Amino acid sequence: MSRAAIQVEPTAQAPGAVAIRGVRKGFAGRSRKSAGRLALDGFDLDVRAGEFLCLLGPSGCGKSTLLNMLAGFSAADAGEISVDGEQVRGPGPERGVLFQTPMLFPWLTTLDNVLYGPKARGAERGAARAEAQELLRVVGLESSSESYPHELSGGMRHRAAFARVLVNRPRLLLMDEPFGALDAITRVAMQRFLLQLWERDRMTVVFVTHDVEEAVLLGDRICVMSGTPGRTRAVFDVDLPRPRELELTDTVEFAHLKRQVREALEGSH
Ligand SMILES: Nc1ncnc2c1ncn2[C@@H]1O[C@H](COP(=O)(O)OP(=O)(O)OP(=O)(O)O)[C@@H](O)[C@H]1O
Ligand SMILES: [Mg+2]
C-alpha cells in the first residue's frame, strides 16, 4: 500500500442517503426447525448522506442479509429500502459492494478486472485506463496490473477488488467485513486508505465488522444489532475528531467508547 496522497480526482457524485423502513426478510429453511426463519423483522435504519456507519452484531443477526438487500442482490419480503429517495430494485454502479471474499474474474488481469465496470458502461477508454492505473498505484498493485487473480496473495486480491469498486465512484459503499481476513499490517493500511478516501469524497459508507475497535476508529455512528430476527439494540455517535489516525486508539475517549460499544455487543448475544 502506498502512503502517498490519493491523486485520483474527487468524485462529483453527491453521496447517497439510505432509508430502511420496516424491513422483513425470511428464508425458507430445509429442516422443520429452521422453516420460515426471519433474519430481519421490522428493521428501520437511516444513514445520512456522506455518513460512515458501522454495523456490529452477533453472527447470524442479519447484517449480510441487510447489505445484500441494499446492494439489490435480494429483495425484502416487506418494507422499503431506498437510496436518495429511490427504491432499490436491483444492483447499480452507484452502490459499490466489497465482501470479505474479494470478487474478481479469474480470467481477467488485475487491470482488466478494475476496468470491467468502466468498460461495461462505455466510459472513455484512455481516461478510464489512467484512473484504473492510478487506483492500482494507490493500493500498491502497480507492478501486478498484468497478473491474474490466482497469482496474487489474499491481501493483494482484496486491494484489487477495492480498486475495482472505487473506479465506479460509488455514492454508497457497502462493505461486509472487508478487512476481516487480512493480516494486521495490511488491515491498518487499508483502514487508513479507506479513511483518506472517505475524507476526500465523503461518499456514504455502511461498514459491517466484528471488530469494535475498527468500528470506533472508522465510524461516525455505530449501530449495534441483536438477533434473531435482527433488530437495532443501540446506536452510538462517535464524537471523535477527524481526520483519524491509529494513535487515536490510545486515547482515553477512544477506550471509553470502545468499552460502551463492547458492552452493548455482549448484551446482544
Ligand atoms: N441464503 C440463505 N438461505 C437461508 N438462510 C439464510 C440465507 N442467508 C442468510 N440466512 C439466515 O439468515 C440469518 C442472518 O444471516 P446473515 O448472513 O445475514 O448474518 P450475519 O449477521 O451477516 O452473520 P455473520 O456475522 O456470521 O456474517 C441467519 O440465521 C442465516 O442462517
Ligand atoms: Mg455476514
Automatic annotation (TrEMBL):
Residues 18-252 form the ABC transporter domain. SUPFAM superfamilies: P-loop containing nucleoside triphosphate hydrolases (SSF52540). One of its GO terms (molecular function) is ATP hydrolysis activity. InterPro entries: AAA+_ATPase, ABC_transporter-like_ATP-bd, ABC_transporter_ATP-bind, P-loop_NTPase. Keywords: ATP-binding, Nucleotide-binding, Transport. It comes from Marmoricola endophyticus. The keyword NADP does not apply. This is ABC transporter ATP-binding protein. Gene3D superfamilies: P-loop containing nucleotide triphosphate hydrolases. It comes from the Bacteria. Transmembrane segments: none annotated.
